[in-house]
Design goal:
It is built from 9 helices and 8 strands. By secondary structure, it is an alpha/beta fold.
Length: 265
C-alpha cells in the first residue's frame, strides 16, 4: 500500500498520517512514514522524546554529496540522478511503535527541471520505497505534490487529500487534485477532518461533489489538548481512532482490488 497525503496547511495531515500509520501497523503492516514538511512534526506527534535531534535528510550535506556527487548550494557540476539510497531507510528511520519514520524535509520548488542534489536524493528515496512491495508507505506532504513526478506517480496507490470544513481548504483540495491529474494520478480520495456538526458534514458533501470520500473524522478536543501536553505526543478519542480505522479498512480493500486488477492485466 502506497499512499500520499496532502492538503491545505493546518487541516490535520500529520495527525491523519500518524493515526493511519498506527492503524496499519495494528493490522500487521510494516509501515514507513515520510515527513516531507518544511516544519516536520510527525516525530513529535508520535511521541518521539527528542524530535529536534533528528535532522531532515535535505540538511545532511555530506550524505547528499556522497550519494549525488554534488554538494548542496554549490554551483555547476553534475548531479547523479540515480543515487544509491537502498540503505537509507534502515540507517535513518526512527522506529516508533512499529512505524518507521523518515524525516525527509521539503524539496525545493523548481519545476520539472529542478535537479538540485537535495531534491534528487529525496525523490530517489521516495521512488525506492514506492516500488518496495514489502512495506506500506505513507508520504506526508505539503499542500502540493512536489515530491512526486511522472516517473513515480504510477506507483502511488492513492492520493489522500485531507479537507476541513472551510472554503480555502476546499479550494486547495481542488488545486491539488488538478496537479495530480496533470501528472497522471487519478486515484484521489478526500478525507473530511475536524468535522464538528451535521452542518460541517453537509458543507463538505456539497463542496466536494464528484470526489470519492474515504471517510470523515470528527473534531477531537483530545487531540488539541494533547498538542499542548507533555512532549506533544498525539492522543485521540476512541471515536477518532474508529473513524481512521474505517478509512484503513477501506484502503486495505481498495489496494487489494488494485493488486488483483494488476495481476489480471
Amino acid at each position: 500500500m502506497k499512499l500520499a497525503v496532502s492538503g491545505k496547511g493546518g487541516v490535520g495531515k500529520t495527525t491523519f498520517t500518524a493515526l493511519l500509520s498506527k492503524a496499519l501497523v495494528a493490522r500487521g503492516y510494516s509501515v514507513f512514514a515520510i515527513d516531507s514538511d518544511p516544519n516536520p512534526t510527525l516525530l513529535g506527534s508520535m511521541g518521539y522524546p527528542d524530535p529536534e535531534s533528528v535532522r531532515p535528510l535535505v540538511e545532511l550535506k555530506d550524505l547528499i554529496e556522497e550519494r549525488t556527487g554534488a554538494r548542496p548550494g554549490s554551483m555547476g557540476g553534475m548531479v547523479r540522478l540515480n543515487p544509491f539510497v537502498d540503505d537509507i531507510p534502515a540507517k535513518y528511520a526512527v522506529d516508533i511503535g512499529g512505524v518507521k519514520v523518515l524525516v525527509a524535509g521539503a524539496v525545493k520548488r523548481g519545476g520539472a527541471g529542478c535537479y538540485c542534489p537535495e531534491n534528487t536524493l529525496v525523490r530517489a528515496l521516495i521512488s525506492h520505497l514506492l516500488v518496495d512491495r514489502s512495506s506500506a508507505l505513507i508520504l506526508d506532504m505539503e499542500a502540493g505534490i512536489e515530491h512526486l513526478s511522472r516517473g513515480t506517480v504510477a506507483s502511488v496507490d492513492f492520493l489522500m487529500v485531507v479537507v476541513e470544513p472551510s472554503h480555502r481548504s476546499v479550494e486547495t483540495a481542488f488545486r491539488i487534485r488538478q496537479m495530480a491529474t496533470e501528472l497522471g494520478l487519478k486515484r484521489v480520495l478526500a478525507v473530511g477532518n475536524k468535522v464538528r456538526s451535521q452542518h460541517d458534514r453537509e458543507f463538505l458533501e456539497k463542496s466536494l461533489v464528484g470526489w470519492e470520500m474515504a471517510g470523515v473524522i470528527p473534531y477531537d478536543e483530545t487531540i488539541r489538548e494533547s498538542e499542548t501536553g507533555e512532549l506533544g505526543a498525539l492522543r485521540a478519542a476512541p471515536g477518532t481512532e474508529a473513524s481512521v480505522d474505517q478509512i484503513a479498512s477501506l484502503l486495505v480493500d481498495k489496494t487489494a482490488a488494485l493488486r488483483r486488477e494488476g495481476d489480471q492485466a
